Amino acid sequence: MSQYAVEVNDEYCRTNFSGAFHPAFRAVKIFHILLSSTSMCSIIYFLIKYNKLLAFHFNIKILFFFQFFSCFLQSLVLGVAQTHHFAFSLIADQPCDVVLSPFLFACFNLPLIFTMLCMEFSQILMVIERTLASCLFACYERSTRSIGFVLTTVAIIVPGLTCLYMYYDDSFNYPQMSAMATSPKSLLKVNYIFITVNVLNFLTLMHSMGLYRHNQQKINAVKTRDHFILSSRFQMNENIISSRLLWWLSTAQLLIFLTYGISMYSLRIFLSGPRSAVWQAVTELCYTPPLYCATMPLICIISAKNSLKERNTKIQSLLTLRSVGNEGWDNYQDQLKKQWA
Predict the structure, then answer these.
(1) How far apart are CA 47 and CA 98, in angstroms?
(2) Of 96, 172, 263, 305, which cross-links 286 as Cys (Cβ 3.0–4.6 Å)?
(3) Residue 11 burial by CB count (10 A; 0-12/13-18/19+): exposed, middle or buried?
(4) Which domains does the chain have, with CATH numbers?
């Protein structure tokens, strides 16, 4: 196996890759396959049944669709990779048979990293888009769609450049048995990137919480004013619903990705050298981004149902005439006038 940076012989494979045949390692593969399948089914179910309930502006909706697509692609690649690893662990005769070729490892690993970064950066850009919508609520509903296309393009280019920074000098020729492993040559840069991304996730969460409270205060301040046109009120309600949804998504993303970052960083520090099969299984299990792919559709479904319920309640309250106080007396006089007219 001269294609690898180190000499891969039977002794090396027995030391480093015998864990591929352990039941715990195979169980993690099955768990990821089931989780990936559940994520893809949940995403498809939401897009078919609940997509129209999120009546958002095009600019935020295209970013939502992009994050859904990133989650779907992450789940698809992970499911295919883990199915491949699980099948090879069953049919392989010796540990060296489960070693991935550099090309196959790159084909699995790069899409996983790229889609994971797309999920994170699209979240940041959605909060930026909602900030623009909140500041320009009076005219944003009539704004051009170019903002959405530009932000989506940024959500693709930035992760691509980040992957280029991490792997531009990496030939992926270090023997690996899992697509979720990290090449030793890029290990330090990967750590820097994930620390940076987690800090950005925290700032995004804080900003989304502040954005929701800002929109809530704004709509409370204009409830009694009649000079706001219907489109402005609709935009403010949309800002509240979308910023609350981003708050929930940002919380889930921060918790899940922070758990992943801390777990992997701790394992790399405390588990240097050859690892036992159980520890290798734990390392695989710490890959938590698929949990966000399964959680995101559920959060969006709950948000869509709550939004529909709130919308129906508001419509019903507008259709129901008040019967007490000054407004009730005015309504009663109007009914008498109509009766005797």
Answers:
(1) 37
(2) 263
(3) exposed
(4) 10-304 (1.20.1070.10)
